[in-house]
Amino acid sequence: MSKWLLAGLLMAGGASAKTIVFGLSGEPISLDPSVTADGNTAYVTTQIYNSLISFKPGTVDLQPDLALRWTVSNDSLTWTFYLRQNVKFHDGTPLNAEAVRFNFMRWWDPSNEFGAKKPFLGWKNNLGGFKGEDGSLVKDIKVRNQYAIDIILDKPYPALGSILADSGLFGIASPTAIKKNPAQYGTPAGIAVGTGPFMLKKWTSGVNVDLVRNPNYFRAGLPKSEALLFRFVKDPSSRLNELLTGGVDIAAELLPDQLKAIQSNTKLNAVLRPALNLGYLGLNTSYKPLADVRVRTAIASALNKKAIVETFWNGLGITDGHLLPPPLAKNYAKSVTDYKFDPAAAKKMLADAGYPNGFALDLWYMPVSRPYYPTPKPIAEAMAADLSAIGIKVNLKTEDWAKYLQDRQDGKFQAFMLGFVYVTDPDSAYTYLIAPGSTTDITWNSPEANTALESARKLSNPAQRLPLYQKVDEIMFREAVRIPIVHSRLLVASGVGVKGWIPSPTGSEKLDTVEK
């Protein structure tokens, strides 16, 4: 064990040993930032690292973190971050602009000697690709002075702030620590060194990750707990049982059908993580009946979404007419509420469109469970029953998950179920749902919506972007090519003695304010 870590352990151990035990659904893949976008990894790395900016607790609003402030140039291409001074990594080395650039160059440049040929999926999936690739959003990264750094983009990207706020993906690590052994960094055999509220003590593969308090954390008075232990408990029933018996203080990723058991137990607190996801029904306009907006609107009006959500989400689901999840509600158009459940009106719309007797429709449902669709087949059966009431004869189909995703992208489905999780900016969500190249699954394009999105990308002021996103909200509701079914809140729980825990919509949050 290195001297700096031993010293930290001794200082942390001087106070009464209060440890928060957190039950994860699995083991982290890597504690090296941006290597993976895995949820269990993010829970742990969020405690070890800080990012340049972060989300305000319980929201997707941005706040300072390692950067006290940031500015965006008039052309929206240069983002300048002004760093805190006197911040140190867990190994005692200083945080400065060179350290930040070291991290970014390691993620962005595949030829970087300290990247150790790691995949850095966090970077790839969020920033268009690596240096030298056509899709890369980043053009250059320059140190302005000791405590200021410029990120220069190839084209405007208003979601950059929200992307970089994810400390699980873009946490800043100690260059000194990485240089010791780049390949082993972030593995059970290596080390993980950030500026965060907790320091890595030991990662016991297959068992747990043990963290201890950072006595030199730059936020005064934090963290509240002396230690943080992440235990790997794969089965949801076992996680709940560990919570009941005191084996863990907090249990993540519980199931909707466990809510009543938690609420009825006076020793537990059920906590609903804000719904930062979407489950939708996609309609491919290449199929002749679905090319008519009246038919698509009829389908939306025939679905008893409220009953479906109440039945299958056990109080955890929210249904409305918006593709963006509730934490992004400020981007909603006031004119959009939801499609009214009205089978009679839906049947008339079908008749007006030339289908008085309905038509046959292949509806593809996912073969796997996701937070937005926990039980895909029964949910699809409920949709089919609603549609049969207006004469649409539904054939339910599914296939292997990998093939499902590819065939959907290739536009081979007439109607299908899908969704997304943890999108923190409207640009990211709409890029995934409606931007050119993203609508091959629905064979649809809206120049009006695309123009609004492109205009929003050129504006650095979030308030100026709002009317444009609200316009897109109206267009998508009117077009009904992706019908919003549900925004699902995720169930987590704690013992009643746990205080200061504020679950984040993003799926992982700093636990520096948690104590018991």
UniProtKB/TrEMBL annotation:
Keywords: Signal, Transport. Coiled coil: none annotated. GO terms for biological process: peptide transport. Residues 62-435 form the Solute-binding protein family domain. GO terms for cellular component: ATP-binding cassette (ABC) transporter complex; periplasmic space. It comes from the Bacteria. The keyword Transport applies. SUPFAM superfamilies: Periplasmic binding protein-like II. Residues 1-17 form the signal peptide. GO terms for molecular function: peptide transmembrane transporter activity. Pfam families: SBP_bac_5. Belongs to the bacterial solute-binding protein 5 family. PANTHER family: OLIGOPEPTIDE-BINDING PROTEIN APPA, PERIPLASMIC BINDING COMPONENT OF ABC TRANSPORTER. This is Dipeptide-binding ABC transporter, periplasmic substrate-binding component. The lineage of its organism: Bacteria, Thermotogati, Deinococcota, Deinococci, Deinococcales.
